Amino acid sequence: MPVPVFDAPKQITILDKTFRYCAADIGNPHCVILDADVTKQTAIKYGPAIETNARFPNRTNVQFMKVLDRNNIAIEIWERGAGYTIASGSSACAASAVALRLDLCDDEITVQMPGGQLQITIADDYAVTMTGPVTKVCEGVISEEVFSGRQQ
Fold first, then answer.
1. What is the DSSP letter of 109?
2. Is residue 60 part of a domain?
3. Does 35 fall in a domain?
4. Residue 125 DSSP symbol
5. Burial of 131 (0-12, 13-18, 19+ CB in 10 A)
6. Residue 106 belongs to a domain with what CATH number?
7. How far apart are CA 86 and CA 75, in angstroms?
8. Which of 18, 89, 98, 150 gives 20 to 30 Å between its CA and that of 5?
9. Distance CA 14, CA 42 (A)
């Protein structure tokens, strides 16, 4: 995972609410909303307007984050181009990096998401390591036709 690049915390007013956020690029752009009401409804209501806000010309992923303690955060996610999602590795990494950068958490953080938990460890240079369960969700066969016409 790339080392994140941060912007200083800022404020943004979306619809009927003003949020404090910190942007972080971890190979893809993220807007981490601080001290958020971490609910699916919040992500669905505000996520689309934040994703497409003019401050983010290439659109952005949005995490609504609540710090639970020095080693635990909870997030809800609005994923750029996909909508509401129950889990995201890059979102967990970006939110954790922001929490550490703002001295809200230590360098080992458990991220709680509706889809499960991930453990994030952040090095002194902000290199991020993500650890979590692996679950087989499907299996399939790819036809040889898919590769026809492809140069070897």
1. E
2. yes
3. yes
4. T
5. exposed
6. 3.10.310.10
7. 9
8. 18
9. 12
For tokens 């181009």, name the residue: 81
Tokens encoding 30: 């993220």
| Domain, as residue range, for 81 | 5-147
How many domains does the chain contain in total?
A: 1
Q: Nearest-CA neighbor of 47 among 70, 31, 71? A: 31
Q: Please enumerate in sequence order all residues whose Cβ is within 8 A of that of 70, keeping only pairs 6 or more positions apart, or say none.
A: 105, 106
State residue 37's pLDDT score.
85
Question: The tokens of 71 are what?
Answer: 């080693």
Position 152 in a domain: no
Instruction: With a cut of 50, list the residues of the chain below it in pLDDT.
Output: none
**Length of the chain (residues):** 152
What pLDDT score does 136 carry?
A: 83
Retrieve residue 19's tokens. Answer: 């949020």
Is-contact 75 42, C-beta < 8 A? no
pTM: 0.88
The pair of three-digit structure tokens given for residue 36, joined into one six-digit string: 């958020």
Retrieve residue 101's tokens.
């950068």
113 belongs to a structural domain? yes
